[in-house]
């Protein structure tokens, strides 16, 4: 274990191997239900990822993928009914967050990127200029489903094809504009009560280049139309499931000027889906 805690070795092992090949290979292995493959895979995942299954709906999984995308018991994550509060859409470690300086933000201190490099739409970039953002990182052992942070309407989803770099802190301190390089989905939404915009950007990573959404058939859309924007009109209640990752990854939440993040957010803090992270007004 100490061997892999060395930053140079961790970066080499998780990023310098053929990332696309590794991602496809793990994706295939994760779906195998044969006990000779599934049981050792699940055991290794539980050991190395520090998995907590105390709130899982079931702890009996047919495959490694079943463990990754597990559902929780009813009531395991609570979302308050306050229409002014913005909840964390997922279990996560809080990463970089704060104000967007015009169109500049950062993945970690000293590693800035521009909103226009992440979002391929100039009008959207202008909408969130001088707004705020919060980076939420899901580790491999965490609950991988994500939920609506408030009552909202999804107006469109843009899939951006890309690489699958690891998104852990070690990689964020070494790879410039990392989030802008990886596969991602740009989810355009509006707060139901106020009509204010909100942007939810799930970013894929190595071993996890699979983002699934309930508001559209993501696999069919990509197969028939390829990367690009798909218009939709999906009303989703606060706390309702929006989609899931096939493994751990990152969600970046963007708020326009006038909406605000909670002052209690601390980088490195572990939070659960439903925790208040901001306010509409």
UniProtKB/TrEMBL annotation:
Domain of life: Bacteria
Cofactor(s) annotated in UniProt: pyruvate
Organism: Sphingomonas sanguinis
Signal sequence segment: none
Pathway as given in its UniProt record: Lipid metabolism; Phospholipid metabolism; phosphatidylethanolamine biosynthesis
Protein name: phosphatidylserine decarboxylase
Pfam families the record matches: PS_Dcarbxylase (PF02666)
EC number(s) given by UniProt: 4.1.1.65
Keyword Translocase assigned: no
An individual GO BP term: phosphatidylethanolamine biosynthetic process
Record key words, sorted: Decarboxylase, Lipid biosynthesis, Lipid metabolism, Lyase, Phospholipid biosynthesis, Phospholipid metabolism, Pyruvate, Zymogen
InterPro entries named in the record: PS_Dcarbxylase, PSD-B
Transmembrane segments: none
Any one Gene Ontology molecular-function term assigned to this protein's record: phosphatidylserine decarboxylase activity
């Amino acid at each position: 274990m100490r061997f892999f805690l060395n930053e140079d070795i961790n970066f080499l092992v998780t990023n310098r191997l053929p990332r696309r090949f590794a991602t496809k290979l793990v994706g295939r292995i994760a779906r195998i239900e044969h006990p000779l493959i599934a049981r050792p895979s699940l055991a290794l995942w539980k050991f190395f990822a520090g998995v907590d299954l105390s709130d899982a709906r079931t702890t009996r999984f047919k495959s490694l993928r079943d463990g990754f995308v597990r559902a929780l018991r009813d009531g395991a994550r609570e979302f308050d009914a306050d229409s002014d509060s913005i909840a964390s859409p997922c279990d996560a470690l809080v990463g970089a967050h704060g104000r967007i300086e015009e169109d500049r933000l950062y993945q970690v201190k000293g590693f800035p990127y521009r909103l226009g490099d992440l979002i391929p739409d100039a009008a959207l970039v202008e909408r969130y200029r001088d707004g705020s953002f919060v980076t939420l990182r899901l580790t491999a052992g965490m609950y991988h489903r994500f939920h609506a942070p408030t009552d909202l309407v999804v107006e469109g989803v843009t899939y951006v094809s890309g690489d699958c770099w690891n998104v852990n802190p070690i990689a964020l301190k070494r790879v410039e504009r990392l989030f802008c390089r990886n596969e991602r989905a740009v989810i355009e939404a509006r707060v139901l009560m106020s009509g204010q915009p909100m942007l939810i950007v799930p970013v894929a990573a190595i071993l996890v280049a699979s983002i699934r959404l309930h508001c559209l058939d993501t696999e069919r859309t990509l197969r028939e139309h390829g990367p690009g924007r798909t218009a939709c009109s999906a009303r989703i209640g606060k706390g309702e499931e929006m989609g899931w990752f096939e493994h751990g990854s990152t969600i970046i939440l963007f708020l326009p000027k006038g909406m605000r993040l909670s002052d209690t957010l601390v980088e490195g803090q572990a939070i659960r889906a439903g925790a208040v992270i901001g306010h509409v007004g």
